[in-house]
Amino acid sequence: MIRRIRIAGFGGQGVMLTGQLLAYAANEQGLYSVWVPTYGPETRGGTANCAVTISDKPIYSPIFKKADDLLVFNLPSLHKFQELITDDGNIFYNSSLIEEEVKQPFHLYGVPMNEIANKLGKPQVANMAMFGAYLKVNKIFKDEVIEDSLKHFLKGAKEALLPVNKEAMAMGAKYI
Known about the structure:
Residues 11-173 form the Pyruvate/ketoisovalerate oxidoreductase catalytic domain. The protein is α/β, with parallel strands linked by helices.
């Protein structure tokens, strides 16, 4: 088993956290993982993407040309990466911000991540709606592994955000 995942959007949309969660959860479940971040020159509002590879065997290179799964949080990221997907790959896109038709032959999953986050009153959990949708389609992880991974990243002052993040994930999964 090997999954090559690209996550892309603007800085501040939770692109890196989503990738870190996937990589961390894979390690917690006894799988191998590599997380490679790429930032634009700006921090917030600039481009950001990361590549995550998850495998049941050692990973010898963090670089891949085509992803099995693409999670795109904005239109520029869709334009940049939609051609770099395997033929039977999955594109999860933010239907709150991407209104144009996404090219086939991929499996498409539109997730209104901004709308879900706004319903919860926390715009910063939009990425968790996408994360929940992704987990629903790709059943790689046990629920307790995801819960422990969330707790790992949301500790200290961020611990109070755990319930709303879980709710955003559930709403994203339900949307699929």
